[in-house]
Hints:
The complex is a heterodimer of chains A (618) and B (250). Chain A is built from 17 helices and eight strands. Chain A has 618 residues and is α+β, with helices and mostly antiparallel strands. Chain A has four domains: 2-37; 66-181, Immunoglobulin-like (Sandwich), CATH 2.60.40; 193-225 and 460-618, MetI-like fold (Orthogonal Bundle); 247-354. In chain A, a hairpin with a 2-residue loop joins strand 2 (88-92) and strand 3. The two termini of chain A are 57 Å apart. Chain B contains nine helices and nine strands. Chain B has a six-stranded mixed sheet with strand order 5-6-7-3-8-9, with helices on both faces. A three-stranded antiparallel sheet of chain B has the order 2-1-4, covered by helices on one side. In chain B, helix 5 (120-132) packs across helix 6 (148-161). The chains are: A alpha+beta (618), B alpha/beta (250). The interface between A and B is large, with 31 and 46 residues.
Amino acid sequence: MRSEGNDSQKGNGRIRKLLILLVAIVLFAYATEVTQVDLREPLEPKRQENLISLLRELARPDLLSYANETLSTNISVRMPCPEEVKASQVQNEGRTVLLIPNCATTTQDVLSLQGEGFPPNASGLVRWYPAESETTRRLAEFKADANGTFRVDFTMPDIRETADPQRIELQELTARHITGLSDTTLLALDKIVETVLMALMASTIGTILAVPISFMAARNLMTDIKLPLAAIMGSILLLPVGGWLGWWGTQQLVALAALISGSAFVGLGAAVVLAALAVVSVRVNPALSPAETKVAPVAITGLWLGTAVLSLLTLATLAQVGLAAGAWLQAHLGVFAFVGNFIFVLSDLLTLLLPALVGLVGILVGMSLGGRYGQEAVIRLPERAARLLTLGVTMGGTAVFVIGVCLSLFWVNLLGIREYVPETVGGQLQILILPALVVGGLAAAVSLLRPPKYPYPIGIATYTFTRSVLNITRSIEPLMMGFVFVVWVGLGPFAGILALTLHSVADLGKLFSEQVENIDDGPREAVNATGANAVQSVVYAVVPQVTPHYIAYIFYRWDINVRMSTIIGFVGGGGIGFVLQRYLNQLQYSRASVLVIAIAVVVTILDNVSSRIRTRIT
Amino acid sequence: MLKIQNLSKVYEDGTRALTDVSFTVPEGEFVAVIGLSGSGKSTLLRCINRLIEPSSGDIWWDDVHLSHVTGEELRRARRRIGMIFQHFNLVDRSTVLTNVLSGRLGYVNPIASILGRFPEEDVQRAYASLQRVGIRDKAQNRADELSGGQRQRVGIARALMQEPGLVLADEPVASLDPALAHSIMRHLQQINREDGITVLCSLHFLDLVQQYSTRAIALNQGKLVFDGAPHEIDDAKFVEIYGREAERIG
């Protein structure tokens, strides 16, 4: 029985192998058909000729610039031919040149140029100075043999009929000096630096954004986070409050700073005083003394707020001073004007971004406060009060969520309903409030299904959401992102930086979070067991374990960004790809070749450096 | 006094790890927790400091309702419960000193600690703890440069930093040479006797149980099957705890 079973198993195995083979054959047959594999076309002489001329151009990169010393020999040509066709002969420094015939009537007439007495292997160009024209036309190249003789046949590209003879010049190359790098090489150097810096900016900003995201996208850190509904809804409720307070408040501070620094020197003085005050307020803050202290939380919160306001005002004032100083430096520094420009751009960015950044911080603070107080309240309040609180907060939180989603829908006009709603955000809010409250009420009713302390798995929900967003963003071709950003911010490297940054955030976020998921959970367990809070646990148990991997990935990503930025240049995202595409379109292959070499050199170097650093760290 | 009443734990996959376990540990005792692998020893210890959430039952430690505290209260309770692990659970890439100082995280100011600042007295305390377990000279070494026995001593020093009233030791010597095991057990005995710290320690070898503990409790498939003095474990009890196929060694 057993042996029969084995036989039938063996038979099954053979049939399966046969089937796999069959499927493979069909697959490759179809693939050959689909991918249009054709070996005949590439063998055609015309194609081969094209290929060879392309390769020859590519193999002669326009790296250096030359100065040529030439010896000119002039001979005259007549158009049209007179009745009696003749030949011309001239002599120049021992060289004899013969033109038979010395005239042309049509562009089909073949003229023959013969030389004698040239230095062995001498070479050069034959040029024609058409009558009434400022440019010359190239007729042929010549190359003498070992005896110093040559013969080239050519036709006139154009017939200009004149009474006087026209000039044909033999430019014999007698010496050639390298005078330096060609314009193409200089441009390539300029652009490759731009490319590397684009990649650097994108990698840096990408890393800064990806690190916090990676913790949210790590399953092992998020599974344990479960919160009661009141905490979740509390954070949603305080999200817009915190965001708006941060944004609006900072705008007032920026305006105040502009007022203070009407004169740059007054502004500088004010900035110094403000900074000193900020430092003092940090120094006296008991929350920063290492040991736990028992000071009223209200006092500490007040001090923190004061410090924040002082520091923000300092920054805003410094930015105003920077604007003035940068403009002045740019006008007075000459060659180093870019330093002034840098200060100006940085200050400008700071002024523009400060409200948005503080708004973001406000959102985080609001969410954490809402979450913490929601949780504490549910734990401390008696059952009935907790239920009531959960009801109210759920209604409010859901309403805020609904309004947020609707406002963004209006903004992107995904449903094409923008023309039916009021134009201002205020007006949109007015029509949204009632329906949002109705939805909130429904959500509150549904929330009654669970007890107020029921731990909702918000951690795993955040994880799933973050991961999905990362995966979708990662799968979008950076070329497409580059295109979108070119439409938004215009042609140039800035669009490229934004596209690469977005892709880097998604890519690094995913890679980083996988590293977090791969850590040894033991230390985290141990640190949690000491009574550390969530942030302490991440800093002491997770960060030391992932740092080397993070650094390795940052270099790896820089390397990738350099390569990608050449591609993004093709859609106008700046960098070397932009120039490469232009040369390819203009069929200037020997110039394109220089750019390709520059890319290859930089990528090789970066590849080497990054792999060295990676092996050293891990 | 640690009081455990009707403690049960059912994992999400349906495994019953603990069933209706009740016992009381007066302060200052050295309790050995014995039983086969998978009998629920680790789950029991982790339920006490809530690394694992109990499904039902109550845990009281003095007047703290350990099984039901949350948030800040849980952190405050945890910081007085030290834990020692079979695989040491040190952060390999950090220094020994940092590992030991991390035992202080529940006490220090969170913001300062995130910036890596600890009060001077805590740093001194860390050196003193390392001195006590005999590896003060290794303070600046990376944790992964140490041998197994030294690593477990770092684990003990970290637990000592918590000024614990209770230490949970989960198979503290199972990954060590038998010769080193005694040295680690003596350290635990020392903190139990000199500092009056209650120790709950899960162990595999009966000779260690009888040499170091003042009391033993035994689990079999999540149920408490023995609670008494170590020398009371005779052959009949042994079969009850470990099953028929087990053989007594050591």
